[in-house]
Design a protein that fits this description.
This protein is α/β, with parallel strands linked by helices and 358 residues long. The protein is 32% helix and 16% strand. The strands form three sheets. Strands 1-2-3-5-4-8-9-12-13 form a nine-stranded mixed β-sheet, sandwiched between helices. Strands 6-7 form a two-stranded antiparallel sheet. α4 links the parallel β8 and β9. The longest helix has 16 residues. It starts with a strand and ends in an 8-residue tail after the last helix.
C-alpha cells in the first residue's frame, strides 16, 4: 500500500450535462484554510473489482482509490470510524476529483470546524469513454456492484471502520450524483445516509432529443481510438450507451446507440429510460425510507436544477424525510465549499459513530 501526501490544486471541473444544457466551465471556489486544522493522511491504493472482471471494453479491474484518514487515526489504534464514499463526475477520475473538491484541505477544514472524524474514500470509475455512469453493464463492468460491494468490502477489511450501514455514507456530484441516487436506491442495505450533489441523467431522454451533429460524429467511430478523438458530448453519449445499452454482439465498442441512420431506436431508448432514476424511483420508496438522512443540493445557475427539483418533489410526495437546497452557484463553482461546509458536516450529524452500531 502506497501512502502519498496530497497537495490539492484548482482545476476546471468538467461534468456531464445534456447536450442542450451546456454551461460555462468555471473554476471551483476554494474555502479558506482553517487555522489550526490538523493534517489528514492520504493513501492512494488499488482496489480489485470482482464485479468488473471480464468487461468487454477492457477497462481496468484494479482501480485507483484515495483513502483519507482522520488526524486521530494513527494515534488511537483501537478506535473505529464511519466511512463516507464520494463519487466523482464524468470525464474526471478519482485523482482529478481530489482536486475539484480540494481534499484533503476541505476534509481537515470540516473537522477543524467541529465535524466528527471519519474516513473518506474516493474510488475511481473512469472508463474507456470517460465514465461508467455507476451502472451495471457487460461492456463496462458492473460499477454499481463495484462501489456497493467490492470497494466497501475492501475498506472494511483493511481499515478500522464501523462496518455497518448506519456508519456508511454515500455522496456524489454530477455523474457521481447520479451514482449516489442510483446506488442509494438499490443498496439501502449497505449505506445509511446519502448526499446527492447536482445529479445528472435523472430523466428519461425523449425520442427526437438528440443532436444531429453529435450523431454524425458518432457514426465515424469504429474503434476505441476514434472515441478518444471525440469532443465532450459525443464521448459522453458513448459512455451512456456503454452503460445503458450494452451489446456483446456489436464489437468493437459493444454498445448500441439511441439513433441509427438519423432515426431513433425505440428499443435502445427504452433501455436508457429504464436507467433513469426518475423513471424507477417509485420502485424503491421502501428502500429510501430506510435512510437515516438524505440531502440533495444544486446551484441556482445549474442546468441540472430542474431535474434535481423533480427528485426532491418525488421524495416530498412520498413523505420521505430529506433536505433540499438550491444555493447560489453554477454546476461546479461551489463544489469544494459544499464538500467542506455541508457534505462532511451532514455525515457528521447523520452517521453512527459508536461501536454499538455494530
Amino acid at each position: 500500500m502506497r501512502v502519498i501526501k496530497m497537495i490539492a490544486g484548482l482545476v476546471l471541473a468538467i461534468t456531464l450535462f445534456p447536450a442542450s444544457r451546456l454551461g460555462a466551465q468555471v473554476q471551483t471556489d476554494v474555502p479558506a484554510t482553517i487555522p489550526g486544522a490538523k493534517p489528514v493522511t492520504v493513501e492512494r491504493i488499488k482496489i480489485h473489482g470482482t464485479a468488473l472482471e471480464g468487461n468487454l471494453e477492457g477497462d481496468a479491474v484494479d482501480r485507483d482509490a484515495f483513502i483519507f484518514l482522520p488526524p486521530s487515526y494513527e494515534k488511537e489504534k483501537s478506535r473505529r470510524y464511519p466511512v463516507v464514499y464520494a463519487l466523482h463526475g464524468y470525464s474526471i477520475g478519482a485523482e482529478q476529483w481530489t482536486q475539484e473538491i480540494h481534499v484533503p484541505q476541505t476534509i481537515a477544514g470540516a473537522f477543524a470546524q467541529g465535524a466528527k472524524e471519519m474516513i473518506v474514500v474516493l474510488p475511481d470509475s473512469k472508463t474507456l469513454h470517460n465514465g461508467s455512469m455507476y451502472s451495471s453493464s457487460v461492456t463496462t463492468g458492473d460499477f454499481e456492484q463495484f462501489i456497493a460491494r467490492d470497494v466497501v468490502a475492501y475498506v472494511d477489511a483493511h481499515y478500522r471502520t464501523l462496518a455497518n450501514r448506519s456508519s456508511r455514507g454515500l455522496a456524489g456530484h454530477s455523474m457521481g450524483g447520479y451514482g449516489a441516487t442510483r446506488i442509494g436506491m438499490k443498496h439501502a442495505d449497505v449505506f445509511g445516509s446519502v448526499y446527492i450533489m447536482s445529479p445528472c441523467c435523472l430523466s428519461p431522454r425523449p425520442a427526437g432529443s438528440f443532436n444531429p451533429e453529435i450523431e454524425r460524429a458518432l457514426e465515424t467511430v469504429k474503434t476505441p481510438e476514434d472515441s478518444a478523438k471525440l469532443s465532450f458530448f459525443p464521448r459522453a453519449q458513448l459512455a451512456s450507451a456503454a452503460a445503458w445499452s450494452p451489446d456483446p454482439k456489436n464489437p468493437p465498442l459493444y454498445l448500441d446507440l439511441p439513433t441509427k441512420d438519423g432515426q431513433s431506436q425505440p428499443d435502445v431508448l427504452a433501455k436508457w429510460a429504464a436507467n433513469a432514476p426518475l423513471a424507477f424511483v417509485d420502485q424503491y420508496i421502501g428502500s429510501l425510507r430506510r435512510y437515516r438522512a438524505i440531502a440533495i443540493d444544486v446551484g441556482d445557475q445549474d442546468g441540472l436544477r430542474a431535474d434535481t427539483e423533480k427528485l426532491h418533489n418525488v421524495l416530498d410526495k412520498y413523505g420521505i424525510a430529506h433536505t433540499f437546497e438550491v444555493y447560489s452557484g453554477t454546476h461546479t463553482s461551489k463544489v469544494a465549499d459544499r464538500f467542506q461546509n455541508h457534505v462532511i458536516p451532514f455525515f457528521s450529524q447523520s452517521l453512527c459513530f459508536e461501536v454499538s452500531c455494530l
